[in-house]
Structures are given as C-alpha cells and as structure tokens.
Amino acid sequence: MLTTMRVLVFRHIGMEHLGLIAPQLEAAGVDYDYVDLYRDPAAPVDLQDAGGFIFLGGPMSANDELPYLRRELGYIEMALVAGRPVLGLCLGAQLIAKALGAKVYPNPVKEIGWGTIHRTEAGHRDTLLGSFDDPETVLHWHGETFDLPTAATWLAYSDNCRHQAFRYGSNVYGLQFHLEATPDMVWEWTQAAVNREDVLGLDEPVDPAAHQDRMQELSAAVFGTWTGLLNRRG
C-alpha cells in the first residue's frame, strides 16, 4: 500500500506562504500541513510521518529569542540527523544556517526588490539551480545574511550579499531569495505595515508583476526538483 508523502511547512507570518511551491507539491502528490508556531508557540507538531520540511520567510531575525524559533531550530537539527529533505527560504535559510552552527547577522545593505544573482562553480553543477541563467533576476527581501555553514556547498551570490544559496549534504537547501512569491504575495508585502520602512526607503517601487513568466519557469524547475528529493534519504 502506498503512503502519501507529507511535508511540514513552517510559517512565520501569514503573508509569507508556499505560493509557487504549492503547485509543485500538489503535482507530485505530496500533502502538506502548515505549522504556525508563531501563533501558538506551544502547539503540538506531529513529526512522525513528515517526509520533508520547509521553513518560510518572515520579518523577524533568526537571532530573536522567540520560543517558536528555538523549537524550529530543534526540528531542523532533528531533520538533519534523520536525513530528511529540508528547504529554507530567506529567514528559513538563515535558520538552517544557524542550526548548522553558522552566524546570522545584518547584511551590509538591505536587499529589497528585484535584483540579480550569480551561480558559483558548484552552483552550475547543482541540479536545483540547473535552470538558472547567469546572471538571473530574482526577488530579494532581506536585511540579514549568514556565514556559509561548515561542510555546506556555496551555490550563489549577489553583488551585495555573498551567500544567496547553499546546499548541505544532498537534500538540504537554503535560498536567501524568493522564488515562491506570486504577484499577489509581492503586492501584499509592499503594503504590509511591517515592511513600511523598507518600502519607503526604496529608490523606486517594487513591481509585483515584473519577471513573473520567468519566476513561473524557475519556481517549477527549482521546487519540482526539490520535491523529487522527498523519496530519497541522506
């Protein structure tokens, strides 16, 4: 009897959800459950049959002394030991880096809006980033960065942020940028009170609809490839 794969998705704010990741999970027949510990830090989490973990973005820092972030760091460590696939986006990538012992700290500049990234030599060989151009335009929305964790593989960088993507082992990925964001999500981010200071400091407004055909292509390739890791271990 076949067992349906289930992924746990950790949110940190309602407006940062799966977005363009969801269609890839659904196409692969993968179920997913949102885990909103930011709403209830003491809520039970059923880890028993979780085949993979996704940690999404949020406006808080991975260094904030928040009970739910401490719990999430523990879940990341458990997933690493168990060999489960893990994907972290923006804050999620920073949490993975922190769980692996790397420092998380303010980037020299905030990256907000559309900007280019470049693949490293290892990034050119990595299957997850195989569909990227050089350079590739993606959506940034972060003020912090991280050191590359020990034993991790550096995959991508931008002019203003050295560590844009990394892989740990064969199935753990941290992406600093946002391939998951739909136009509606980007518009909501530009309107959110928590982002007001960042948006007001921009030289020009973020166009939610920019590059969306390319984002559809990249998200399908990247998240489709990551979804394919769910039936593997280690």
Q: Which helices and strands occur, and which strands form pairs?
A:
Layout: E1 6-10, H1 22-27, E2 31-35, E3 50-55, H2 67-82, E4 86-89, H3 91-99, E5 104-119, H4 121-125, E6 136-146, E7 152-157, E8 165-168, E9 172-175, H5 183-191, H6 196-200, H7 212-228
Parallel strand pairs: 1-2, 1-3, 3-4, 4-9
Antiparallel strand pairs: 5-6, 5-7, 7-8, 8-9
Helix pairs in contact: 2-3
How would you describe what is shown here?
The protein has a single domain, classed as Rossmann fold (3-Layer(aba) Sandwich), CATH 3.40.50.880. Strand 7 (152-157) and strand 8 (165-168) form a beta hairpin. The protein has 234 residues and is an alpha/beta fold. The protein has seven helices and nine strands; from the N terminus they run E-H-E-E-H-E-H-E-H-E-E-E-E-H-H-H. Helices cover 29% and strands 26% of the residues. The two termini are 24 Å apart. Strands 2-1-3-4-9-8-7-5-6 form a nine-stranded mixed beta sheet. The radius of gyration is 16 Å and the shape is globular. It has helices spanning 22-27, 67-82, 91-99, 121-125, 183-191, 196-200, 212-228, and strands at 6-10, 31-35, 50-55, 86-89, 104-119, 136-146, 152-157, 165-168, 172-175. The longest helix is centred in the C-terminal third of the chain and has 17 residues, at 212-228.
